């Protein structure tokens, strides 16, 4: 692929959507997967190779936040934040990068967060259930202090997870750590400068999630990982009204394609004035891409 393509289109391309939740495989995860085995990972046949994904988002007039998950102390496999930065550099018109650190690495995790900021990444993804940690444990406070100080957003998987599903003991994964209260609420209270995204409708605790959204200005959520027709009704109702400025579109690709998500979202009873907020404007403001909002065509109401 022509690596200059991104640069030439970065300022001119029309952006209608920002997908804030897209997985890529890096480091040991990419090696395990092998490049030539990037296959259609979903029923609709879209490859999750980052080059193919970039073209997919260009066709959708979209941008995407990409990340991996480092859970090396549990699995022995290390993710690579450099590779995330490299994919962003290769497709700067499409990708925004979030890093990942394994919170159990202690001081090394702090240094890695600082390196993520130096690499130009905009946030850090955490998966408390898969990484087996309680975000409100004071041992991890230095992580939240560092992210807040560096202006890095933190994205927490929330709600149940398919990771480990069906395996003996759910592969040892405790769903409890996906619960918004107390884990996310505690650190949102303690670190008001920390900008937090709760990923996914946090089923079966989505009501707790909505309570935090209403209560804490520094907490947001994405609607990824759920086909819109299955998103709990209360989440849709709040997204359409009280928390309409705090909800982001996300697919969780390759688990769910943005195409299917957008198709089903179009069927939901969301106000015309709210749709562009969820699909683009809220994330653009959150990520500091305000020019996308300012230059946007007015929403038809
Ligand atoms: Zn995800």
TrEMBL record:
Please list the residue ranges annotated as the Amidohydrolase-related domain: 18-289
Purpose: Catalyzes the reversible cyclization of carbamoyl aspartate to dihydroorotate.
Write one Gene Ontology MF term. metal ion binding
Q: Which residues form a coiled coil?
A: none
Q: Which organism is it from?
A: Thermomicrobium roseum (strain ATCC 27502 / DSM 5159 / P-2)
One Pfam family assigned to this protein is Amidohydro_2
* Keyword tags: Hydrolase, Lyase, Metal-binding, Plasmid
Name of the protein this chain belongs to = Amidohydrolase family protein
Q: Which domain of life is it from?
A: Bacteria
Extract the InterPro entries matched here.
Answer: ACMSD, Amidohydro-rel, Dihydroorotase_CS, Metal_Hydrolase
Matching Gene3D superfamilies: Metal-dependent hydrolases
Lineage, uppermost ranks: Bacteria, Pseudomonadati, Thermomicrobiota, Thermomicrobia, Thermomicrobiales
Its transmembrane ranges are none
